[in-house]
Specification:
The chain has about 70 residues and is an all-alpha fold. Helices cover about 75% and strands about 0% of the residues. The chain has four helices and no strands. The chain is elongated and about 65 Å long.
Length: about 70
Amino acid sequence: MKKKSVFRRVFDFYKEGFKNMDVGRVLWVVVLVKLFIIFIILRLFFMPDTLKERAGKGNEAAYVSSQMMLSDDD
């Protein structure tokens, strides 16, 4: 009898656990929907890409460098 590796046993443990879930599946769907809303939807509306707007295409490194130099004066 060949002994399975630790990673394989852990994977099998979680695979069997998720396979036998009833209520847990609904909870995981709720968690995934909430994460989608937080990281995708809210980012689109409330976190604009200011680097792209202020620096322009291709000038990102120069813009960041100039902003770092300005922050030393504070």
